[in-house]
Design a protein that fits this description.
By secondary structure, this protein is mainly alpha-helical. The chain has helices at residues 3-20, 22-37, 42-56, 63-76, 82-97, 101-122, 125-133, 138-152, 159-172, 178-195, 200-209. 80% of the residues lie in helices and 0% in strands. Helix 9 packs antiparallel against helix 10. The chain starts with a helix and ends with a helix. The model is unreliable at 132-136 (pLDDT under 50).
């Protein structure tokens, strides 16, 4: 299916869920998970993410699906197709918005830890050259967006989350790729909205603008 056809199908599913409730959402759940777990084609995974969002935005999202998405979504953040990565980050935001504050903090810390690991790998000259010769910094950019999505779906972050995110933002704002730097600036903006400005946040935000 083409993009507009996938979007229309997702809209139709959302309409059916509004009418049929949890029964329709549960019936769609196995097919959605199968689409996300598939290897090819990428359109199937992209459509699965759109369907995910239709279910998550309803009042009938199965808890079991939300638990499965915690495992399935991170793998799609380094998909070769940028449209899949973009929808994966958006889906992550919706998943996080339905969780408890404790679950949201754990999700944010998990994404932050993976992003930190990828920033360390990207700092290696050999890995850096290999990255530039293949996919550029698109995967790293996707993980930055995922971190911003996690922050956008959560309430006031814990001290641990704030410290971890500030550390990562400091590294990413110095990155050689402008899209990674722009993503880091978005993360800083989200953190400022959640915590207010002051101290380290003001310093990092000033560096991002400069």
């Amino acid at each position: 299916l083409r993009l507009w056809e996938r979007q229309r199908a997702a809209d139709e599913l959302a309409s059916e869920i509004r009418e049929g409730g949890e029964e329709v959402a549960m019936a769609a759940y196995p097919q959605i998970c199968a689409a996300l777990a598939s290897r090819t084609p990428w359109e199937l995974q992209h459509g699965g993410l759109l369907f995910c969002q239709a279910v998550l935005q309803s009042a009938h999202s199965p808890v079991v699906m939300e638990q499965d998405l915690e495992t399935l979504i991170p793998g799609l953040l380094h998909h070769l197709e940028p449209r899949v990565r973009a929808e994966a980050a958006q889906t992550l935001r919706l998943v996080g918005s339905r969780w408890s504050p404790e679950q949201q903090q754990q999700l944010t810390l998990g994404v932050a830890a993976e992003l930190s690991r990828r920033l360390m790998v990207a700092g290696d000259p050999v890995e850096q050259q290999a990255c530039e010769e293949t996919q550029g910094w698109s995967f790293l950019e996707s993980w930055i967006k995922a971190l911003d999505a996690c922050l956008g779906s959560s309430g006031t972050p814990s001290t641990e989350v704030v410290q971890q995110v500030i550390l990562i933002a400091s590294q990413a704002l110095d990155h050689t790729n402008r899209f990674v730097r722009e993503g880091a600036a978005m993360v800083v903006g989200s953190l400022c909205k959640l915590c207010g400005t002051g101290g380290h946040l003001d310093t990092i935000a000033t560096r991002g603008v400069a």
